[in-house]
Design brief:
Among the domains are: 1-60, no CATH class; 528-641, Sandwich (Immunoglobulin-like), CATH 2.60.40. The N and C termini lie far apart (64 Å). Strands 8-9-10-11-15 form a five-stranded mixed β-sheet, with helices on one face. Strands 30, 31, 32, 34 and 37 form a five-stranded mixed β-sheet that branches. Strands 3-2-1-29 form a four-stranded antiparallel β-sheet, with no helix packed on it. The chain is built from eight helices and 39 strands. With 642 residues, it is mainly β. The model is unreliable at 1-57 (pLDDT under 50). It is an enzyme of class 1 (oxidoreductase). Homodimer. This is Nitrous-oxide reductase. One of its GO terms (cellular component) is periplasmic space.
């Protein structure tokens, strides 16, 4: 995004909110009335970057975002074993939001309210099925090859779940558990429909299973891992139902999709299908497996599938032994460097890049040649490889600048390497003068995931690259044995890379995407009518049905609509609370001491909780989220009779 666009966005976006603008304009009018202003006009603030651009000097990128100014990008990141997602501003590195997904969050009430429990999933007694999660990869929905700002998806490796986040509210609205999968790791949406050429937006999300397990995992074949298997899954982007699964060789790591919608792929380690580390290292190469989506869905449509255990999801066989004829094959296993970690699509749609991890190489696969293999026009799968440059020790994840250059994290070298894809292809063809490696920069230390601004789209802009480093010793103030991790932001606009900032990250985030701020269009208040259980004056109050008590309550700063709630010991109490305030950022909380209840309701939002009143006594229901000058006085009495 150029500086002119940045200035325009600062003018159009509600950076300081309607209330601040109203107060500012009122002050100006007051000065004008006192004769101190001869004229006034509401102009966008001129930033340093905009001034430099206007004067004809190219401004170097900086991580500084002045007070009152907005970041240019969102970094939408996983939260690792916190089970959450996180949003950072780029380039500032400021934490803007933590999105609870697979974890319990007492601030928002996620995992506490009835609505969130229904999304996470519960046992028959109403308790959460899981209280832990392990998020790794975040990716957004596409339209015409770039982000459309509608959905995000994030995986839970631990319990093999996929969650969807609505980008208009930045809240999770669906969670699906994948059947017969353990260690669901990589995930990626399609960029257009693989069957209908008229649909140029995301319709499916692909999920790579990582760990072998008995199929089904019902206590049989425990002593014979040779019978275990791995499944690659397809989830419907809208319904979030599992469409189909493919049984494959190897363990899936990351997932990528082609820009034409035809293929999904996953880099694989352990193509040996071994159950121990020594066995996983025995082969010379591993693979990147490509899936022909149209063929898979045609086979399922024709009824040529099986199911596993109690699951009704169609399963087809994508193992190499069952797919020897390229013209009918569902899968194509392209040999790549040993124990690869990461597969990424170049913004021009031509290539997939896999890094070797245990090989100092990056393997460049031409998508058009993979298609030729599926058509029976290529001798071997390996012939789809068009380059394999040596780029450094421990290569992992690759981002792109949209100018033909790739940026790969080098875990063992603690560096980011900048290399040119076309030069690598020339070198592979025998050009000894091709200059592949363009630059390297040190990072601190052991970078894992790395990603470029808009780098997963056809709009890769070549401005920022973020290196997510796993070790930060000596970088920050010591805080005991557990260190934070380091996110280092790198300016990639010039010939030489330049580290411009360090940001801390609570362990352990993994992958993220950097999205231009104009792509994200969020709501500032909810629509009360979107909530079927919304409490309004006509249905507010307390009702009893046997030992079940329903408290329907409204909040308007600084008060709840019901000052006293009286129940009996043993009652099952449901509190439904609707925030009737319409002011942006005016959120109310609801906490009940000794009852483990704490949640918030945003403007015009409704949430509910259900619990047993098993502790007699008097308790104050109080607002936890500062909302008014009389915030401390915003309380109701909750009385439980013995």
């Amino acid at each position: 995004m150029d500086n002119a666009k940045k200035t325009k966005l600062n003018k159009e976006e509600p950076a300081v909110g309607a209330r601040r603008r109203f107060l500012g304009q009122s002050a100006l009018l007051g000065l004008a009335g006192a004769g101190l202003l001869t004229g006034c006009k509401e102009d966008a603030p001129v930033t340093k970057a905009a001034s430099a651009s206007a004067s004809g000097h190219a401004a170097r990128l900086t991580s500084e975002v002045e007070p009152g100014q907005l970041d240019d990008y969102y970094s939408l990141s996983s939260g690792g074993h916190s089970g959450e997602m996180r949003i950072f501003g780029i380039p500032s590195g400021r934490t803007i939001k933590r999105i609870p997904v697979f974890n319990i969050d007492p601030m928002t009430g996620w995992g506490i309210t009835n609505e969130s429990k229904a999304i996470i999933g519960t046992n028959p007694d109403g308790s959460l099925k899981y209280t832990t999660g392990d998020t790794h990869h975040v990716h957004g929905s596409y339209k015409d090859g770039t982000y459309d700002g509608k959905y995000l998806w994030v995986n839970d490796k631990m319990h093999s779940r996929i969650a969807r986040i609505r980008m208009d509210t930045m809240e999770c609205d669906k969670i699906t558990q994948l059947p017969n999968v353990m260690g669901y790791h990589g995930t990626f949406p399609d960029k257009r429909d693989p069957v209908d050429p008229n649909i140029n937006y995301t319709t499916r999300v692909f999920c790579g299973g990582e760990f072998h397990m008995p199929l089904p995992n019902d206590g049989h074949d425990l002593d014979d891992p040779s019978k275990w298997g791995v499944l690659f899954s397809c989830v419907d982007a809208e319904s979030m139902e599992v469409r189909w699964q493919v049984r494959i060789d190897g363990n899936c790591d990351l997932v990528a999709t082609s820009y034409d919608g035809k293929y999904a792929c996953s880099n694989q380690y352990n193509t040996e299908n071994a159950a121990d580390q020594a066995g996983m290292m025995s082969a010379e190469r591993d693979a990147c497996v490509f899936f022909d989506i149209a063929r898979i869905e045609k086979m399922i449509k024709d009824g040529k599938f099986t199911t596993i255990g109690k699951s009704k999801v169609p399963v087809v066989d994508g193992r190499k032994a069952a797919n020897q004829d390229p013209k009918t094959a569902l899968t194509c296993y392209v040999p790549v460097g040993k124990n690869p970690h990461g597969v990424n699509a170049s913004p021009d749609g031509k290539y997939m890049v896999c890094s070797g991890k245990l090989s100092p190489t990056a393997t460049v696969i031409e998508v058009a040649l993979v298609e030729k293999w599926f058509n029976g026009e290529l001798k071997t799968e390996r012939d789809a490889v068009v380059a394999e440059p040596e780029i450094g020790l421990g290569p992992l994840h690759t981002g792109f600048d949209g100018k033909g250059n790739a940026f790969t994290t080098l875990f063992l070298d603690s560096q980011i390497v900048k290399w040119n894809v076309d030069a690598a292809i020339k070198q592979f063809k025998g050009d000894k003068n091709a200059k592949v490696i363009l630059d390297k920069v040190d990072v601190h230390y052991q970078p894992g995931h790395g990603y470029a601004s808009m780098g997963e789209t056809k709009e890769a802009d070549g401005k920022y690259y973020n290196s997510g480093n796993k070790f930060s010793k000596d970088r920050f103030l010591p805080v005991g044995p557990l260190h934070v991790e380091t996110e280092q932001l790198i300016d990639i606009t010039g010939d030489k890379m330049r580290v411009i900032s360090d940001h801390t990250a609570y362990p352990e985030p993994h992958d993220a995407i950097i999205v231009r701020r104009d792509v994200v269009k969020t709501r500032q208040i909810y629509n009360m009518d979107d909530f079927p259980n919304a409490v309004k004056p006509e249905n507010a109050g307390i009702t009893r049905n046997g030992n079940k008590v329903h408290v329907r309550m409204m909040s308007v700063a600084p008060a709840y609509s019901i000052p006293v709630i009286k129940v009996k010991k043993g009652d099952e109490v449901t509190i439904t609370l609707t925030n009737h305030d319409k002011v942006e950022d005016l959120t109310h909380g609801c906490a009940i001491p000794m009852y483990n209840i704490n949640f918030i309701v945003n403007p015009q939002e409704t949430k509910s909780v259900t619990f047993k009143a098993d502790k007699p006594g008097a308790y104050w229901i109080y607002c936890t989220h500062f909302c008014h000058a009389l915030h401390l006085e915003m309380r109701s009495r909750f009385l439980v009779e013995a």
